[in-house]
Design goal:
Number of strands: 16
Bound molecules: zinc ion
Pfam families: NYN (PF01936)
Strand content: 15-25%
InterPro entries: Marf1 (IPR024768), NYN (IPR021139)
Helix content: 40-55%
Structural class: alpha/beta
């Protein structure tokens, strides 16, 4: 189970806003509705949060008994009527409005079972930009690995049973508002509210207005290429390039890769130092290309296809440790969910500036929020004449220093300064053994994954360790430390 982290000082006394789906997480039979708020606040207090808490309970309130509505309202819990199908979208749009009024630092809490399925894509994108703290509560534990890092999570029933903050119970709170999301109605009294819900007007409106059950993902409208913000303009740029997804085109001079990238960055106002590492099965890459890359200061890394993502990922993480933001990371890869979801998770914690390039436009928008994206071919084709001079200048200025290194990412401690040593290593017996070991362990983990699928079908707990699940375990560990 998730270990809840103590409040960081910047959030400890700030606002906490709670959006609560009463359908997913109902008030249990016989439970006093007036205890909901003090229980929630008591749980927050245990972690060191003492800021003002606003709570709104969403659901089909025609089904909620009057005494529960009264109990909630009397303890300052707002009640919102929604048609069941539109509860999530209503919660989400209210959350977006709240974010518009209340800049971070502050804490948001979702009490819902729909977080992984409904909220996570847009919320994970929003969270890559802004520093809101996130709490979650649910009645059913999701089996999907969540892309949203939270600082605290609770099971709904345990949350309600947690020792209530007695101060809240004794203090007099202003009675909260009642809303009807179908009609835009707002009032204070429970009697009037119930009368509204049973009115003909209300019924007609719910029939006439088909409910918007889908979220309105506000980040979908965000553009692609932005000018550099001042803090990024001269900061470092690190590039991890998957040569299998985005190869050097036939007949293209490898020495032009770096100047083409730097030219594209410059157009957007980025002029910081650029480091590039090219990943791929380098036994198959012609010498001429490797020499061309290395001579322009591009590092070359040998991997095999199945481990490229994890090697790029762990190198990215090592780089992050040495280079705190502001700085820019760029991925040249047709990023799959396997890669982009863990990175989106990490980005919500670290908030680097991010670029992407890919060989084709993804058919759906990535969960990663970027400040610039390019098609690989057009990135290489662009700005050549202008960048060529830039590149020549660089070479004459920096001379030997601009030579890239050669790494074997399968063997430990294989960093070569020149191509001949690298080639010698790649054709060595030691390397062949190591590569064979990787392929065998991959076959084994595929076999284990299959076992695990069968085990889950039989409802047996079984842990396997593929490269990607290792990444997820590592990430949840990472988020706890942050
Ligand atoms: Zn209404
Ligand atoms: Zn090797």
């Amino acid at each position: 189970m998730w270990r809840n982290a103590a409040a960081k000082p910047e959030y400890a006394t700030e606002d906490i806003a709670v959006w609560w789906d009463m359908n997913d997480c109902p008030i249990p039979e016989g439970y006093d509705a007036r205890r909901v708020r003090p229980s929630i606040e008591g749980a927050f207090k245990k972690l060191g949060y003492s800021g003002p808490v606003s709570i709104t309970a969403y659901g089909d309130q025609t089904q909620t008994p009057a005494h529960l509505l009264r109990g909630l309202s009397s303890t300052g819990v707002s009640v919102a009527h929604t048609m069941s199908e539109s509860t999530s979208s209503s919660m989400f749009s209210d959350m977006v409005i709240w974010r518009g009024h209340r800049p971070p630092p502050a804490t948001m809490m979702l009490i819902s079972n729909q977080v992984a399925d409904v909220f996570s894509w847009d919320l994970a994108r929003l969270q890559q930009h802004t520093k809101y703290n996130l709490f979650l509560a649910y009645s059913v534990t999701s089996h999907i690995w969540s892309v949203l890092p939270s600082s605290a999570e609770w099971l709904w029933k345990e949350l309600l049973m947690s020792s209530a903050d007695e101060k809240v119970i004794s203090s007099k709170l202003r009675a909260a508002d009642f809303y009807c999301k179908s009609c835009g109605y707002q009032d204070e009294g429970v009697v009037k509210f119930r009368k509204h819900l049973s009115s003909r007007d209300h019924a007609m409106r719910e029939i006439r207005n088909p409910c918007d059950w889908q979220l309105d993902p506000i980040t979908r409208m965000w553009g692609r290429n932005y000018q550099a913000k001042p803090e990024h303009a001269t900061a470092k740029i690190a590039v991890w390039w998957d040569m299998k997804d985005c190869p050097i085109p036939e007949g293209y001079d490898a020495r032009r890769v770096r100047p083409s990238l730097e030219g594209a960055f410059k157009k957007l106002g980025y002029s910081g130092p650029v480091s590039i590492t090219a990943y791929g099965d380098q036994r198959r890459t012609p010498d001429q290309l490797l020499r061309g890359l290395s001579s322009t200061g591009v590092n070359v890394a040998h991997t095999i296809p199945d481990v490229t993502y994890t090697r790029m990922y762990s190198d990215l993480h090592k780089w992050q440790k040495l280079n705190p933001p502001p700085a820019t990371m760029m991925l040249i890869s047709d990023t799959t969910d396997d890669f982009s979801r863990p990175l989106a998770f990490l980005q919500q914690l670290t908030k680097y500036n991010l670029f992407l390039a890919y060989s084709y436009r993804p058919y759906k928008m990535s969960i990663l929020v970027t400040s610039a994206e390019w098609l690989w071919d057009s990135l290489l084709a662009d700005t050549v004449s202008e960048t060529r001079t830039h590149f020549l200048q660089r070479c004459s200025e920096e001379g030997e220093e601009s030579t890239g290194m050669f790494y074997c990412k399968l063997c430990d401690d294989c960093d070569c300064k020149n191509l001949d040593d690298f080639r010698k290593h790649l054709s060595s017996k030691e390397h062949a053994l190591e590569e064979r070991r990787f392929i065998e362990s991959k076959q084994l983990s595929e076999y284990e994954a299959q076992l695990s699928r069968e085990a889950s079908f039989l409802n047996v707990n079984y842990r396997f360790s593929t490269e990607s699940s290792k990444m997820h375990i590592y990430l949840s560990d990472f988020s706890r430390k942050h």
